[in-house]
Amino acid sequence: MAKYTLDFKLSVMAYYQNNHSYKRTAKHFGLDHKTVELWVKLYQAHGIDGIKRRRTKAIYDTTFKLNAVQQVLLGK
């Protein structure tokens, strides 16, 4: 999956908000219309945070991991 900058996504949002359809916006930027639709919905629901890339992975300590394994083994 391609990674797009926040500025690019905001440009897509601005174009879409000027009364263009998902398909027209997608064609203009060389994207799939489902990608545009997803970004618009995320933006509408969560604002700019919805379309920001998440760069951090969750880091779990050893205790948490052992507890998770025990829960699975116990069927919980």
UniProtKB/TrEMBL annotation:
Record-annotated Insertion element IS150 protein InsJ-like helix-turn-helix domain positions: 8-56
GO MF assignments: sequence-specific DNA binding
Domain of life of the native organism: Bacteria
InterPro entries, alphabetized: InsJ-like_HTH (IPR055247), IS150/IS1296_orfA-like (IPR052057), Trp_repressor/repl_initiator (IPR010921), WH-like_DNA-bd_sf (IPR036388)
Pfam families registered for this protein in UniProt: HTH_28 (PF13518)
Family: Belongs to the IS150/IS1296 orfA family.
Official protein name in the record: Transposase
